[in-house]
Amino acid sequence: ETGVTQSPTHLIKTRGQQVTLRCSSQSGHNTVSWYQQALGQGPQFIFQYYREEENGRGNFPPRFSGLQFPNYSSELNVNALELDDSALYLCASSLKLAGETQYFGPGTRLLVL
Amino acid sequence: QKEVEQDPGPLSVPEGAIVSLNCTYSNSAFQYFMWYRQYSRKGPELLMYTYSSGNKEDGRFTAQVDKSSKYISLFIRDSQPSDSATYLCAMSPPGGGNKLTFGTGTQLKVEL
Predict the structure, then answer these.
(1) Residue A34 in contact with residue B100, Cβ under 8 Å?
(2) Residue A68 has what pLDDT?
(3) Residue B18's closest CA among B65, B64, B66?
């Protein structure tokens, strides 16, 4: 059983650019959530996808968007990058929509200059 | 005021000590409580998961939940240098899907 994987591991962008981060769920998991973790802070929920549909969103602007594919892999897209978007972006997968253990990937560290 | 408050530390203890990590929360809707361990430059790893008041033990780890006080704790017995990490509490309400609300994390260092 493979764990949650994310790519790339590190990324440097400049303000105003767009970025796409990728996540492969743990085998058999149909739910994926994305979190943003700023330095020295706990992860903050961005949104969740279940069977290719967004199902729940945190307090993040629309320039944060996502996709989930039929194989349950996922993308996080961020448009018009701001300096405050610099953070570790974590993907977590679980077996179903609620009440199940979430397994986190290692994260993508994004630096916006 | 944050929904979940956690002392960020850092907390430094000698090897073999009992460690107590704590979180308080304000949202009485939270019913599921978790503790995650996060090593530097890694994703969080689930340590304990509970959904009721009381104690839950797993090896050297004990999770305690007091819903009446809105207070949860994680105890680590016989702490080891390999326990050095950031410990995050997380919680969610029923019907909240997998949306977790995390504390800021407590940085723990266990010294030889």
Answers:
(1) no
(2) 95
(3) B64
